[in-house]
Design brief:
This is ATP-binding cassette domain-containing protein. InterPro entries: AAA+_ATPase, ABC_transporter-like_ATP-bd, Metal_Ion_Import_ABC, P-loop_NTPase. The chain is of the alpha/beta class and 274 residues long. It has 8 helices and 12 strands. A 6-stranded mixed sheet has the order 6-7-8-3-9-10, with helices on both faces. Strands 2-1-4-5 form a 4-stranded antiparallel sheet, covered by helices on one side. Strands 11-12 form a two-stranded antiparallel sheet. A hairpin with a 2-residue loop joins strand 4 and strand 5. Helix 3 packs across helix 4, helix 3 packs parallel to helix 5 and helix 5 packs parallel to helix 6. The longest helix has 17 residues. Adenosine-5'-triphosphate binds next to strand 2 and helix 1. The site of adenosine-5'-triphosphate (ATP) has 13 residues, from strand 2 and helix 1.
């Protein structure tokens, strides 16, 4: 009989030999990954590599087919996922608010875990203060009463961070959070994440992206995956390199780092002489 380790309460995420199968196809093939408190991870890899699937484990949404997934010291499959999810903040730019609720109300939906304001639920004054403090944190102190349809994409992105933080999660997941932002809004958003890491050093984050330019300078660790397996994982400065990224994307890509930020440029492949 194989020995089954108990969850390590010190780890925020601990994936051990995780495989995942969907419709007869194995999508992940033995993922090992440990994330400790206060670390800021980037999850990188080409389309279809398995990033969203891994993020689904981190968010206590999916069960592995085999192996173990421990989130915040609790094992998926042994605990009630709904309760665990309340301790995880999720920033998803595809978050669809349909009604004209204010930035403050959007943040308060993070307490009810809903998209819209819940009927017959009224926040306490402490909860409103908390929502306002989170709006201040993301630089929206002057935009509390602005309604969602009139907010810019950049403001919406920052409001969604405030929404994710309002319930004081220990883990924050960011799923391609800068999608759809123009270059200025993207820079403001990344600055917000850098400020967050300064003001909340104990918070752990995992950010998924396809683009190295979208990594905040405060990123400490990275895991690069391709074809459902880890290509490299560890300190960001050692993982986000020309060699690893070129291998994962199966294309020669030159990775640069300047002022803490990463950049990537695809090199042209040699063409056969005609
Ligand atoms: N419901 C499903 N049924 C079968 N295969 C699936 C299903 N969902 C995802 N897959 C496959 O699993 C693999 C990993 O998908 P996943 O969405 O995790 O990748 P990803 O790295 O997030 O991709 P992208 O960058 O395109 O969002 C892909 O090959 C995908 O086609």
């Amino acid at each position: 009989m194989t020995h089954r380790r108990d969850p390590d309460p010190g780890a925020v995420l601990d994936l051990h030999r995780v495989t995942f199968r969907r419709e007869g196809t194995e999508i992940l093939h033995g993922i090992d990954l440990r994330v400790d408190p206060g670390e800021r991870w980037a999850l990188l890899g080409p389309n279809g590599a398995g990033k969203s699937t891994i993020l689904g484990f981190c968010g206590a949404v999916e069960h592995p087919t085999s192996g173990t997934v421990d989130v915040l010291g609790r094992r998926i499959g042994r605990v009630e996922l709904q309760a665990l999810r309340r301790e995880i903040g999720h920033v998803n730019p595809r978050h669809a608010v349909r009604s004209a609720i204010t930035a403050r109300e959007v943040v308060l939906t993070g307490l009810t875990g809903t998209l819209e304001t819940v009927m017959r639920w009224a926040p306490t004054s402490a909860q409103i203060d908390r929502a306002d403090a989170m709006l201040d944190l993301v630089g929206l102190e002057d935009r509390r009463e602005v309604v969602w349809p009139t907010m810019s994409q950049g403001e919406r992105g920052r409001a969604l961070i405030a929404r994710a933080l309002v319930s004081d999660p220990r883990l924050l997941l960011l799923d391609e959070p800068t999608t759809g932002l123009d270059v200025a809004a993207r820079e403001q958003f990344l600055e917000t994440l850098d400020d967050l890491s300064e003001h909340h050093p104990e918070l752990t984050t995992v950010l998924v992206t396809h683009h190295l330019e979208e990594l905040p300078a405060s990123t400490t660790h990275a895991v690069v995956i391709a074809h459902g397996a880890i290509v490299s994982a560890g300190a960001a400065s050692e993982v986000v390199t020309t060699e690893v990224i070129s291998r994962a994307f199966e294309h020669p890509i030159e990775v640069t780092r300047e002022g803490g930020r990463w950049g990537a440029r695809a090199k042209r492949r040699e063409r056969a002489a005609s």
